[in-house]
Amino acid sequence: MSRRSPAGFGPRIAWLAAGLLALTCAVPARAMGVLPTGFMLEDATPGAAFDTPTGIAFMPDGRLLVCQKDGTLWMVQSGGTTKILDIKNVVLNQGDRGLLDVAVDPN
Fold first, then answer.
1. CB count in 10 Å sphere of residue 49
2. Got the DSSP string for 19-35?
């Protein structure tokens, strides 16, 4: 059985490293989408500036609930926002912790 010398792997490793470097430096192509005719973008919360929204839920009557990571829950209706829950003092809002979502009972 023949054994390869470790010196033979040097050029191969160098070529492999150069190839991996070239792949990581490559600029990805940007996809440019075409919007359908008649497509409209509408601001559902005009004038509202949410800090860290983490979840939304739609009420059956069309209102929208938005929860934020810091422990606040907002209701959006008729273009205005109202804070309906503030539990900042009991929510651990550090790192990936916080108020993460809201759900609406369908009944």
1. 6
2. HHHHHHHPPPPPP---P
CA distance 98 to 90: 10
3-state secondary structure of 3: coil
Q: What is the residue-level pLDDT of the chain in tens, covering all 107 positions?
A: 556 656 666 778 888 887 777 777 766 666 667 778 888 877 777 778 888 999 999 999 989 999 999 999 999 988 689 999 999 999 999 888 999 999 998 87
Sheet with strand 72-77: strands edge to edge? 53-58, 64-68, 72-77, 80-86
The per-residue pLDDT for 9 is 66
63 Cβ contact list (under 8 Å, min separation 6): 75, 76, 77
Q: Residue 66 CA to chain centroid, in angstroms?
A: 15
Q: What is the helix (H) or strand (E) element at residue 16, kind and residue range?
A: helix 9-25
